[in-house]
Amino acid sequence: MTETINVADAKKHLSELMSRVAYNRERFLVQRRGKPMAALVSAEDLVMLEQQEAPARGLLSAAGACADFDGFDLMIENIYLQRERP
């Protein structure tokens, strides 16, 4: 779960926060005047986030693009049923 912290506290406790992020995999949302400004995440989480931003290719990307389509599961099920028919 992400903990929210204000900028002043983040500045005061940056070293501690960095340790908690690096070793405990905690996440912090840094706010200024109640508005989210930045996040402190582990280097591993950053790599994962950057990989998710990479453009997807192939059939899996098409499936991911259709995941919010309400009839997607039914459509896939029908494809499998059609493949089983002689």
Give the strand tally.
3
By CATH's scheme, which homologous superfamily of the largest domain applies?
Answer: YefM-like domain
Q: Indicate the CATH class of the largest domain.
A: Alpha Beta
Number of domains: 2
pLDDT average, as an integer?
84
CATH architecture of the largest domain: 3-Layer(aba) Sandwich
Reported by name, the CATH topology of the largest domain is YefM-like fold
Instruction: Report how far apart the termini are.
Output: 50 Å
Task: Describe the strand arrangement of the main beta sheet, using strand numbers.
Answer: 1-2-3
This entry's quaternary arrangement is single chain
What Rg, in angstroms, do the CA atoms define? Answer: 21 Å
Order of helices and strands: EHHEEHHH
Number of helices: 5
Instruction: Find the structural class using helix and strand composition.
Output: alpha+beta
Helix amount = 55-70%
How many strands, which pairing sense, and closed or not: the largest β-sheet? Answer: 3 strands, mixed
**Outline type:** elongated
Uncertain residue segments: none
Strand-residue fraction?
15-25%
Describe what this molecule looks like in 3D:
With 86 residues, this protein is α+β, with helices and mostly antiparallel strands. The protein has two domains: 1-54, YefM-like domain (YefM-like fold, 3-Layer(aba) Sandwich), CATH 3.40.1620; 56-86, no CATH class. It has helices at residues 7-12, 14-24, 43-53, 58-65, 72-84; strands at residues 2-6, 27-32, 35-40. It has a three-stranded mixed beta sheet. β2 (27-32) and β3 form a beta hairpin.
